[in-house]
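step: validate -> pass
step: tokenize input -> pass
step: predict -> running
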Amino acid sequence: MNKKFEKIVAFVLLFTLSIGVSIYALDVGSGYGSFTELAAAEDVSNYTIKTNDIGSDTTILGIHGGGIEKGTSELVEALDGYGRYNTYSFEGLKPTDNGSLFIKAINFDEPSAVRLVRNSDYTVSVIGAQGDGEVTYVGGQNKMLAELIKLHLTAKGYNVETLNIPDRIAGVMNSNIGNKNKLFNDNYQIGGVQVAVTKGLREKLATDSGTLNDYSGTINQALSESWPVVADLMSEINNDESQWSLFRSYSSKSDYEKKIDEALEKGAKTPNELIKNFEDVVLTED
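step: predict -> pass
step: emit ->
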């Protein structure tokens, strides 16, 4: 490897890492490495856990709620109001320094949250991101649902960016609690969606009921109207299990992933266009 190429590689790696670091909610404290560790150190009055399991196939998570990342639990509560989803919030209740209650999504193992996600087909995890502007970063392993949410929010005038880099803010790691839902059709780990909302937008969601209702209503539309159509189309895919295992690799993609990638590459501008693109891909014989 020549020195020029080494410099280019080093720059790309540094730039990639800096993106993830710069938008992550760094205003929180160092926090804990697990819920067990937190529970052993903190008085129970410092936090609360709110769980609403209605037996839905979709769970909305807020693992940094209350004073940890203000505005996230408000969004979870608003989505809970539609009566269609299981919801979960871990909320900091300290007068100050709620950031000390922070647990990374890849380490979040509070039992009721884990149980709820594992019993759900689809998961949307709401977390915070840095920034005084009003930006939503959408990531996670479920790329189709993430893109649907993005397109719905964009259509309503929200500034949305998609993250695919291998950083914690992108929500793509297998260890992220949002990706631990049930297997799709018993053979495909579809994963979840992570919606990271900047501080500026979270403050608006927490104080402006009109914005909160509009924002949550838009996500609800993506989940309740567009996603079921896509999920039905996915059920039509004849996934070849002989070429796929639960251990992901870049060299061997499942039939699901191949068709999802093909549809996304068409660059839909609206939710309906994305659905149509996916339908064309699914119904086209290989």
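step: describe -> The chain has a mean pLDDT of 87.
step: cleanup -> pass
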